[in-house]
Write a structure and sequence with these properties.
This protein is mainly alpha-helical. It has one domain. It is 43% helix and 6% strand. It has a two-stranded antiparallel sheet. Strand 1 and strand 2 form a beta hairpin. The two termini are 19 Å apart. The mean pLDDT is 94.
Length: 86
């Protein structure tokens, strides 16, 4: 995923905003990422990805998602169609 690609599709929160938020605010819990433009408070699809980004940040790594934006959006659509994460 590129920095300007949206992680939270409901509120159009890009990866770059989340990275900057974590760098500046150092959230103690993944749920605090919701303070960044409401990320994760819409449909909930991005919550596991926000948790992953937070884990990376807490481990001292650069938060990133190894996923193409097209695949990410497609997986979200499949989730809502089937109710399954695979």
């Amino acid at each position: 995923m590129e920095p300007d690609d949206n992680v939270c599709l409901c509120f159009r929160v890009p990866l770059r905003k989340l990275q900057t938020f974590m760098k500046n605010e150092c959230p103690q819990k993944a749920s605090q990422l919701s303070e960044c433009l409401g990320a994760g408070t819409g449909c909930g699809w991005c919550v596991p990805f926000l948790e992953k980004l937070h884990e990376q940040h807490a481990a001292g790594e650069s938060p990133d998602l190894d996923e193409a934006p097209e695949n990410y959006a497609s997986r979200r659509q499949d989730f809502f169609s089937t109710g399954r994460w695979d």
